[in-house]
Amino acid sequence: MPVDDTFRSDLRAAIEARRDQALQRLHRLVSADTTLGKEQAGQEIMAGIFTEMGLAVETFDVDVDAIRDRSGFSPPVHQDYTNRPNVIARHVPKGRAQGRSLIFNGHIDVVPPGEAELWTTPAFSPSERNGRLYGRGAGDMKSGLVAYCLAYEALRDLGYAPAAPVMFQSVIEEECTGNGALACVARGYRADAAIIPEPFQQTIMTSQLGVMWVTLRILGKPAHVLEASVGVSAITAAYMLFDGLRELEEDWNRPENRHPEFTTNPHPVNFNLGRIEGGDWGSTVACSATMLVRVGFYPGTSLKSVKSAIEANVAATKAKHPGLANIGIEISYRGFQAEGCTIDPNAPFMQVLSAAHRQAVGSEPQRLASTATTDVRFLALYGDTPATCYGPIGGSYHGIDEWVSIDSILSVGEVLALFAAEWCGLEKA
Ligand SMILES: [Zn+2]
């Protein structure tokens, strides 16, 4: 095992020498708009990078029929999975595999940028300011994809390669269903550990909340505004129903109702009214409205019980307000149906990752109980592969002027290289 002080300082130099290349790659990736349905442009760039790394590349479209009946499946919000492939690349050791195998996973999709006029520089025109790179996906999580490639190449620069199989996955739909990662699990991809470099400030994730997307369609009774008192506006009804759901949110946030991993966060469970549409005429009481609500919930809570709680809450709100008596409410579930999960901080791979962080960063890593979901759940719950997130420092994910610290990408590359060296062992490249 060649990992000693000399190796570590050579590794740091190798990482630093690839700074410009890493940045160029991140610029190219962020320049590609990879919002839902448009992932292909980014995946072509990833396939190109994997090829530059000397790895065998495979691409495949998500086959809904192969995952529909699997645990973790979420009904798609985008029906067509053609030409939106997952891309994977494999490192196969030259000698007999000696170490433990590894999956590096990351997602290519990004969330929509929001209003263009609010961005200091355009969302898909990456721009560097004060050691940060700005742009949609710069942090979440194209920087992570760049970092795991950097880790591998820096080891190669030193004349080494992992002595166990390493798979690199770039998947679609982490931001709405996770069906990209589920398709990888369905193809049988397994490893002794997996790391997803989500941009979680170089903390090590020990748990994540569950997330469910709930669609409520409300049918009111149309009327002229002159007689608005007899008509029920579906838009007003939507707000009343959401107010009711917020009581459930507050209930789940009460100290006595919390999961032990989430006791210190001031408000771990969040319900978000992310989208609403309704009505059709300025002088007509709105007769329909549809709202999309994102619901968070604790690990260990079943999807079934979350649905029951939501449906009971909606029924109670309706019963409480006479004005809602004549409206129809349809509840459906598309997009995230994501269970929460916890990760044993004492698992061997977590210990190795902590040690790699200490060596590269020089401090004890912080742990993270994430209030968002990630693709970790597929690997850990349904893919027989212990998994966590560890990735760069940044901010404004899903917001305006998203950014990532450029230095932290290099630091994460270094940590992941040290992790791979220890976990997989090394052979002469
Ligand atoms: Zn992400």
TrEMBL record:
Names of the cofactor(s): Zn(2+); Co(2+)
Peptidase M20 dimerisation domain segment(s): 208-320
Alphabetical list of SUPFAM superfamilies matching this protein: Bacterial exopeptidase dimerisation domain, Zn-dependent exopeptidases
Gene3D superfamilies, sorted: 3.30.70.360, Zn peptidases
Entry annotated with the keyword DNA-binding: no
Keyword annotations: Cobalt, Hydrolase, Metal-binding, Zinc
InterPro entries (alphabetical): ArgE/DapE (IPR010182), Bact_exopeptidase_dim_dom (IPR036264), Peptidase_M20 (IPR002933), Peptidase_M20_dimer (IPR011650), Peptidase_M20A (IPR050072)
UniProt record similarity statement: Belongs to the peptidase M20A family.
Record NCBIfam families: DapE-ArgE (TIGR01910), PRK06837.1 (NF005306)
Protein name per UniProt: ArgE/DapE family deacylase
Organism: Microvirga terricola
